[in-house]
Amino acid sequence: MSRFDIDLASPPPADPESVRVIALGGLGEIGRNMTLFEYRGKILIVDCGVLFPEDEQPGVDLILPDFRYLDDRMDDIVGLVLTHGHEDHIGAVPYLLRRRNDIPLLGSTFTLALLKAKLKEHRIAPVTVEVREGDAEQLGPFDLEFLAVNHSIPDALAVFIKTGAGTVLHTGDFKMDQLPLDGRITDLRAFARAGEEGVDLFLTDSTNSDVPGFTALEKDIGKVLEDLFAHAERRIIVASFASHVHRVQQVLEAASAHGRKVALVGRSMVRNMRIAQELGYLKVPPGTLIDLKHVDDYPDDQIVLMSTGSQGEPMAALSRMASGDHRVEIGQGDTIILASSLIPGNENAVYRVINGLMRLGANVIHKGNAKVHVSGHASAGELLYCYNIVRPRAVMPVHGEVRHLLANGELARQTGVPENRIVLAENGWVVDMVKGVPDVVGAVECGMVFVDGSSVGEITEADLKDRLVLAGEGFVSIVLAVDTSNGALLAGPDIHVRGVAENDAVFDDIKPKIAQAVAEAVQENKADQHQLQQVVRRTVGRWVGGKLRRRPMIVPTVVLV
Amino acid sequence: MSRFDIDLASPPPADPESVRVIALGGLGEIGRNMTLFEYRGKILIVDCGVLFPEDEQPGVDLILPDFRYLDDRMDDIVGLVLTHGHEDHIGAVPYLLRRRNDIPLLGSTFTLALLKAKLKEHRIAPVTVEVREGDAEQLGPFDLEFLAVNHSIPDALAVFIKTGAGTVLHTGDFKMDQLPLDGRITDLRAFARAGEEGVDLFLTDSTNSDVPGFTALEKDIGKVLEDLFAHAERRIIVASFASHVHRVQQVLEAASAHGRKVALVGRSMVRNMRIAQELGYLKVPPGTLIDLKHVDDYPDDQIVLMSTGSQGEPMAALSRMASGDHRVEIGQGDTIILASSLIPGNENAVYRVINGLMRLGANVIHKGNAKVHVSGHASAGELLYCYNIVRPRAVMPVHGEVRHLLANGELARQTGVPENRIVLAENGWVVDMVKGVPDVVGAVECGMVFVDGSSVGEITEADLKDRLVLAGEGFVSIVLAVDTSNGALLAGPDIHVRGVAENDAVFDDIKPKIAQAVAEAVQENKADQHQLQQVVRRTVGRWVGGKLRRRPMIVPTVVLV
After folding, report:
1. Are residues B48 and B104 in the same domain?
2. Residues of B in contact with A369 (CB under 8 A)
3. Lowest mean per-residue pLDDT among A220-224, B9-13, B95-99, B280-284
């Protein structure tokens, strides 16, 4: 297997008889999946998603793939395939289309429906090509074939890409539930056919590659819900992901079986389920769905609320219920079911919500104490099946942190893929496949692109460092006006502190020291604004460090008069 | 069981024939455990620990129990019992002793040794009383008896408190490993004796009360370590908690069995293990321990590093190794064992370390993929044994978030404790036990006390809110000097932004608007500094909100000339 800790130079120009593969996101991270395939000067893109920020990126709304490599190649793009409708696969499409809005978007009915709703909010009218499993499409020099895969959202696709220089099978996100609610299984017969045709490079979902065994059936959750619904005495509130149509389907069925009405809560939940219902992916038992505003017309034991907020998002309905800040008041005997995963990093927020709900007397069911969630990703056991059915010549694990990519590569190795045909790469690495054999030939620049409010890519790592300093230490602002003829202060120093463990008055002590330091600097002819600001910064910094043992950001402004 | 969501008034004066119980920390949280027992005007304290901050408390070093209730009662304190030496039980002692340094501190040999080392750093010479299991002590009107309990640190004690108004058994933190390394089991015979004497109120550790079954044996980890050591080809690095003497003991034994030397890494690890060795709690196989600076004298396959940093703490040795910023360079074939829990909230930091180590070629073993950690707390099954052996008349779960306290209360209920004798309380609630029957009678003020640098309790919730705004949005500082006679600007506006997704120049557009707004205000006679600053704040705030869709902190300074 390749090693991660190497330095790579710029890649050579692409060989026209090679397929060049570059991931601009999704390697070394769970999210912002985006992979480019380049052949004979044309570029095919698979997925274009967002990554959600961590604590180390305060205030960031979203993180995008780095499109820089495409800057002068926008017209070479022949199409963008969206494997399914999750945000980490479609969320960055609006930002790519801002650069060229007529890139053909290929996807299944449900995927495109969700994508179009998103693009409408961005006022973008896209060019779309609806495809389904079994379909073939030609995009420039790429022949595509779409294969059904099962995932935690309906209508997901894998794509088989055929070129004169080799073939690539890209699974997208998938698992292999053998009894899915909609009967649409991952099409292993089609995987086998592709394998017999010959798969030179197999890109597979690594998310659960370090989880032993097999992902349980979605259907099993239905039985658990049935049982919980049978014993619930008052209201039931279920929280899950807003795109998890089958999870909502099972809630609707359990509700219907127990004579309860379901109201959807949360903007994205309402929007997605309306789309799913219109397109026939969600089958609502007659009379089961009601509008949230009619909930009070029914007794508590006839109500189910199906809500977002399963990750403890502070503004979501569930968090607001937990803190008593929502029109739905939680009380003794209510049953809350978190039918969702617990995404790493969200633990404290989720436990805060659980504690808040329990404090109000609710019975809280979650994956820690009942089988109310199954993952959407193939575990190690399923991936072994895939490798043995496809028998790829080479493998490139995608969609995962380093630990997941390595675990997935190890599974490929165990099924007989030679170590030197297992490509472990990072975002931006350039993998050239010549005569069907992949090799890392260099890397292109590929960083983090932060969306913050209306700005895209303007916030830098340095800004985030500033923010972390401000968060940890606060700041001290010092303003003064100096008579440059003699160094006397005409106004100030005015000192304001925020986020520092002291009130402004504590800083009165330092004011004479500042005046003295400024006067001395002027006498020594260090009297321009920059120099004087440095003097103030140093004087205050030393004092704060020594006396308060803190290192806040120090912001001096010297006005010269 | 009592309900949490009630408002409580100040308590009535204590009845001399009651035992008053007040937790100043440890209820509704995992940490800063501290419980007061008040009888006939005297106060006995059990534990005085710290809580570690979460993301919502940026820059905070520690959180202390709220000592306000003790402000005018310091002289009534007859003693402070420390059940064991973990930070969440002893960490706040220095801060309490700053208020009265001769409070008698009672604890076992190892607990007091760790505490004294800590107090020495704070330059405090304490009054200590060393006790051991079986000992009895009288402190004012309290008769105490100490019982051995097993925990993830040696020499932990429970305390049986007897007064004329009832008895209390407080477990401290504990579990019931039946084959502990030191043979020192939780003394259920003593628990049974206390039960026969009569336990009016039983305070029990709730940390793992929602975990079904039984906590596994510490000893089982030894076998797993043996197996890992047998197959490791290069260096082995084990990370765990710096006070986990038995975990380190097992590492030493596995190392010795495989001809490896062990070097301790991390200041607290070195200090605690020196103490443990001196007092005989750690038994070092002859010739096994070496100093870190001699590691390079041995081949890689004869070395074990025993390190701190198992929670992904960025400054700890392990994190620095993962980012290539430590003298120990990680390479292909190294084995890293995280023999520790994963404390909620630390997931991202720990996975960052794991990914970094794997990226460098290391094989990383952690509780997710091997049995290299067991908890130090009793699971639900063990707590049931306790309740059945003690048969308490009433129960008050301590040491846990709301979800843990409720789960623990439910276990008590299942063993037959009447619901109205299960006290679910919050920090500051006043529980009076009259004739052996506890009842919530009110609450005292009890908040969060933040330690930040050298300041204690000066940082407020408002400061933290400021910090979170600064973290999420950054700030904009605007400085200008105004001629108050006509509203003309004499200097500025100088605009500086930090942590905002734009550079300073973006703000040039707003400068004429500020000048105009200030001039207008002066003409309207709104010309004092506060009014003009408000004008500037509003002008900039509107512009930033509209144009950048951000809400940074806006810090205007107007100098009047």
Report:
1. yes
2. 210
3. B9-13
Active site residue B205: yes
The CATH number assigned to the domain holding A71 equals 3.60.15.10
Last residue of a domain, one of B431, B452, B473: B452
> How far apart are the CA of A19 and the nearest CA of chain B, in angstroms?
26
Q: Is the peptide bond before B180 cis (omega within 30 degrees of 0)?
A: no
Crossing angle (nearest 10°) for helices B188-197 and B380-390: 40
Residue B252 identity (one-letter amino acid): L
Burial class (CB in 10 A: 0-12, 13-18, 19+), B452: buried
Is residue A346 assigned to a domain? Answer: yes
**pTM for this prediction:** 0.89
Nearest CA in chain A to B474: A467
Residue B276 lies in a domain: yes
Give the C-alpha separation, B67 to B95, whole Å. Answer: 9
Of A307, A335, A365, the position where a domain reaches its end is A365
| B90 and B206 assigned to the same domain | yes
What is the count of structural domains for chain B? 3
| CA within 13 Å, CB half, B133 | 20
Nearest to A347 among B28, B344, B547 (CB): B344
Kindly tell me if the per-residue pLDDT of B530 is higher than 80.
yes
pLDDT band at B23 (very low <50, low <70, confident <90, very high): very high
Asked if residue A9 is part of any domain, the answer here is no
Half-sphere exposure of B327 (CA within 13 A, CB side): 8
Kindly give, in sequence order, each residue whose CB lies less than 8 Å from that of residue A267, ignoring residues fewer than 6 positions away.
none
Domain assignment present for B370: no
The whole-angstrom distance between B372's CA and the closest CA on chain A is 17
For residue A246, give both structure tokens: 């089958």
Question: Is the domain of A158 the same as that of A57?
Answer: yes
Together in a domain, A34 and A168: yes
Contacts of B27 (CB under 8 A, 6+ apart): B398, B400, B405, B425, B426, B427, B429
- Whether residue B27 sits in one domain with residue B169: yes
DSSP A347-413: HHHHHHHHHHHHHTT-EEE-TTTS-----SS--HHHHHHHHHHH--SEEEEESB-HHHHHHHHHHHH
The two three-digit tokens of residue A558, written as one number:
């010297």
ipTM, interface predicted TM-score of the complex = 0.86
Among A55, A406, A501, the residue with its CB nearest the CB of B459 is: A501
B163 to A474, B195, B356, B393, B543: CA distances (angstroms): 49, 15, 56, 15, 67
Residues B273-296, mean pLDDT to the nearest whole number: 96
Q: Where are the alpha helices (DSSP H) in B186-299?
A: 188-197, 218-231, 245-257, 267-278
**Do residues A38 and A113 both lie within one domain?**
yes
Tell me the C-alpha distance between B142 and B163, whole Å. 5
Q: Which helix (H) or strand (E) holds B87?
A: helix B87-90
For strands B449-452 and B62-64, give the pairing: antiparallel
Q: Residue A311 region, left (φ>0) first, then alpha (ψ -120 to 50), else beta?
A: alpha
pLDDT for residue A502 = 65
Whether the CB-CB separation of A416 and A443 falls below 8 Å is answered with: no
For position A313, what pLDDT does the model report? Answer: 87
Assess whether B207 and B228 both reside in one domain. Answer: no
Q: What CATH number does the domain containing A233 carry?
A: 3.40.50.10710
Catalytic residue among B47, B155, B177, B205: B205
At residue B442, does pLDDT exceed 70? Answer: yes
Question: Can you tell me the mean pLDDT for A444-464?
Answer: 88
**Extended strands (E) in A206-246:** 236-239
Mark whether B55 is an active-site residue: no
Q: Is B489 left (phi over 0), alpha (psi -120 to 50) or beta?
A: beta
Residue ranges making up the domain that contains B499: 461-560
Residue among A246, A258, A377, A404 flagged as catalytic: A377
Shared-domain flag, residues B35 and B102: yes
The DSSP secondary-structure symbol of A556 reads E
Tell me how crowded residue A54 is: count the other CB atoms within 10 A of its CB.
17
